[in-house]
Amino acid sequence: SLYVSEYFSQSAQKLSFYSWYGNAKLFHFRVPEDTVLLRWLLQASRGKGSECTNMEITVHFRYGAPPVINPLGTRFPVNATVRPSYNISITLSSAVQNTTFVNVTTPAAGDWFIAAHLPEAAGRIEVKGFSTPCPYMFQADMFVLRLADMPVLEPGVAMPQTIASPAKPLHVKVFIPKHTVGMQLELRNCLTSERKACAVRVVLGSITLPQSYQRIVTCVGRINCSLALESPPWEKWLQLMVESLDTTNASVSVEMLASFRACRPGGIGSFLNFSSLNQSQASPKPGSPSQSPGDASRNVSKQRSSCLQNQPVVREDLDVVSVRYRLLNGPSVPINSLSPSLLLLNLNTGMDSGGSLVVTLLLNKTSMSLANATVAACVSPASPVLSLNATHNCSTAFFQGYPLRVSTSSAEATLIVLYPQTDDWFLSLQLICPKGQGECNAAEAKVTVFAYLTPCFNDCGPYGQCSLLRRHGYLYAGCSCKAGWGGWSCTDITKAQSVGAQNLATLLLTLSNLMFLPAIAVAVYRYYLVEASVYTYTMFFSTFYHACDQPGVAVMCIMDYDTLQYCDFLGSVVSIWVTILCMSRVKKIVKYILFMLGTLLIAMSLQLDRRGVWNMMGPCLFALVIMIAAWVYYGVKRRHCYPPSWKRWVFYLLPGITLAFIAISVYAFMETNENYYYTHSIWHVLVASSVAFLLPPRDKHKKPWAWSQKLTCRYQICQNDREELYAVT
User: Fold this and answer.
1) Where exactly does CATH 2.60.120.380 map onto the chain?
2) pLDDT category, 275, cuts 50, 70, 90?
3) 466 Cβ contact partners less than 8 Å away, ≥ 6 residues apart
4) Percent of the chain scored above 70 by pLDDT?
């Protein structure tokens, strides 16, 4: 046999601590056909700084769709079916780099996904620039070994093959046509080179993670053996591997024969349904073909004699990872007990596995002719379940399906498949009677089917945001929860904030900005009108930014969120800038030039990087240098400490500086996601209070505001202070 090796590599990604699915780094590979060996090369590394500690990296694997993971142990939405992903842990301890290999024999061809992440995030809000996080990098490479000339087993034709040795197993593939109900594989004349009965093991199917449903049969001491498969995957190549268990290293000769049982589907032709697609709500036109009662009875008898009833379905693409399935014959599906009704849900475009498949069944109780009957349904990939009896577990040859049931006592059922694998999905429905199928041969029911693919189920609810994520050209969706809510679709209320707590957080973050009122009053009283206008601007936009930034229901946005955030950050930094320059007591013309120039530079830097620490620290340090230089100049010129009054230092400067340092410490080192609403409120109060203390007194030549003289009436009594001159005669 001719083996061909191929190597696929993707660029390394920086790992993140896990708080939602967007923190997991996704790798997407495609395994070619006829692959007999798949080897993952997983490389993890970390930085060399002192901030880097021992770390455990979790890596998840899945075939057909991104892995569904739950590192936080939160709840999934009701009616969602979740099967745990296959995962391994990679530990970075003393070594800076770790290399791990994962081998998969006879893997399924198609899409394979790897997701890697760090442990749960600590929740501390880190100011960009104050600390340097340790970089943890992860890279996944794929090595495949495929058989270039894999023999093809044709149905009904015996194919002789030879297994040279136990170390060289035999690989064969067979194509499963559509509408195949069952497959029979036979091994005949299985003999060793010593003419003894062989000992072989036959493996049917490929490995799919997290769960693999390979069928294995062992033939020991027998010349002939067989294996039967029910509901094999339609229109796919099925791999067969035969390996010798002989201990004498003798060759084994065997004949292989595959046979299929096909199903004759019933139902109305697709052409007639397509022609009536746009006329389903309209009245029939004159001259249009109509169905006679005789034709209708023949169609009914034909449906009764077929093994399944095809219901034509139209796939309607709405948006990215958003599909709606529409039945041509209307939303109601007729169900009987003789043969299942089958709906095809096409999810094989390669871009459908990043959302959630939702299937809802609604039973029309008035159409149920037998009260104690039940409509059993099964949603399965690759191939349908064609035998839905009372004891069936909704499984096909290699996949476990998802069962649904509706009855007169429970008329509605919903199924949510998170990240459905890329494949053709089938919905099978059949009527089941508790006393046997003979009881309801003449019974019928009608079930309304709603099926659609959505990026996020229920749009993540009121306390979540559905985000579209991208890895190269592959798109998938995830929910980012807020206000303490958690879970895959933000439905877990274990740590959720109450409405009262949300209102309290909004009031604290908004009303704490009113502490700028004393600073504004002091600035106006001392004739610092430009500074007072800056403080008013900051108070206004900080109040409404935090009113719009709330995660819960207590939200009010007067304009675009991004605009409010930018204005809040700009006002905060400019307030610090003008306060320190005002304390320097430089000439007015120089002060106002620095006001304008600094504001323009701050606006530019915030546009480049809004959350960078140097956007705040840079202007502050430069203004402090100007202030210290001015104070030193005044002190040398006057030969006295500046400011000269000890009362100014004790009662104003030292309290103001202390409040400012406490505010910076709270902002940089104490804020977390849980305590943000009161620690950030404390930051507002401390910063606004420090401004009121730090503003210098007014100039000596300016008098206080004399409101009785400033606010004049229409008539004013004037006093003549001119000195009268008397002439001496």
Assistant:
1) 3-147, 157-262
2) very low
3) 455, 456, 459, 460, 477, 478, 479
4) 88
Residue ranges matching CATH 1.20.1070 in the chain:
499-694
Task: Report residue 697 as tokens.
Answer: 């007194």
Burial of 529 (0-12, 13-18, 19+ CB in 10 A): exposed
CA distance 236 to 257: 18
Q: Is the dihedral of CA 299, 300, 305, 310 positive or negative?
A: positive
CA distances from 71 to 75, 84, 119, 120, 420 (A): 11, 11, 8, 7, 20
Nearest in space to 419 (alpha carbons), one of 477, 482, 497: 477
Mean pLDDT of the chain: 85
Q: Per-residue pLDDT for 446 more than 50?
A: yes
Q: Which CATH architecture has domain 309-454?
A: Sandwich (2.60)
- DSSP helix/strand/coil, 344: strand
Tens of pLDDT, residues 102-115: 999 999 999 999 99
Q: Classify domain 157-262 by CATH number.
A: 2.60.120.380
Give the H/E segment covering residue 250: none
Residue 268 to residue 291: CA distance in whole angstroms = 12
> Class for domain 3-147, per CATH?
mainly beta
pTM of the model: 0.82
The pLDDT of residue 299 is: 45
**520 vs 128 pLDDT, higher one:** 520
CB contact at 8 A, 337 and 443: yes
- Cite the beta strand spans of 433-588 per DSSP E: 444-454, 464-471, 474-481
Give the class (CATH, top level) of 499-694.
Answer: mainly alpha
Q: Of the ranges 264-268, 298-302, 537-541, which one carries the lowest mean pLDDT score?
A: 298-302
